[in-house]
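Project standup — Tuesday

K.O.: blocked on the structure for the chain from last sprint. Re-posting the sequence here as requested.
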Amino acid sequence: MSNAAPLLDARTATQLREDLTNALRGNVPEWSPTDPATGAPDQASTALIAIVARFAELVIERLNQAPNKNFLAFLDLLGAAPLPPEPARVPLTFTVTAGSASDAVVPAGTRIAAAPAPGDAGPVIFETERELTAVAASLQTLIAVDAERDLIADHSALLASPAANGVLVFAGDRPNEHVLYIGHAAYLSYPQLAALTLNVKMSAESPAAADARVLQWEIWDGENGVPLTAVDGTQGLRATGTISFANLAQIPEQSVQGVRSRWLRCRLLTPVSPGASPAQGMVRAGQLPLVAELRVSAQLQRTALVPEIAFANSQAV
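H.V.: unblocked you, prediction finished:
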């Protein structure tokens, strides 16, 4: 639907010439568009008709602006006024030179030339309104997350070379890992570690109709993890209790998120659903465990210990 005012007269100069010609034929029978003697077109009458038609067209153009003028007068009565003129604005992108390791500051008022439009004599000059910083950063990793199915995909290879046949960039191709790491540089370093106990205090108990979930405890060796058999009194981190491990193998030192220690880890093998309704084979994110406190205790198994020194009363033996 158009908001333009209706035209009072839509005729153009061409239509007006036709109307004038028809009017002369009907009202001036002795007039002829051709010379009676030679039969050639009457140049004088043709020129006069064209001049009158053009002047009439100009009058009609002014007449057709009357509705807009009346509309502006109506807005003026309402107290409305046209918006003041504003300079044109365009979005700009600044990039640092390839290989640059530092950011670049673009001061306010920096002049930028836009390519001239067709018919323009020169380029259009703009200025930046405020200072900005062009960051010397590049995209290194491209990860897609499919939250509905708890899958992820690493598409970082696309940053170096595009895929010939295209890639489903929003689809995951492997399970998203959910891992809890527990490190203790002292307790987990003993080769004679007979038993290790985790005392876990939960912030809240899981609901009675909790979603099924499977946990796997492991020694983190930096590669795949060494599975452990746990005596779990927390029912899979659903309630406050203890988790015990017996006869642990010596745990190697590894780095996790830049922290050097010896690590146990607990992996959630059940996919996580972001929804509030139950999902087949998944555990809802709202039912994931909330741990308030975690304490570690260890039991060593050492034999044939040789005393370093002995005293009888105050006399060294």
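K.O.: great, moving the ticket to review. The first strand starts at residue 104 and ends at 106. The longest helix spans residues 43-64.
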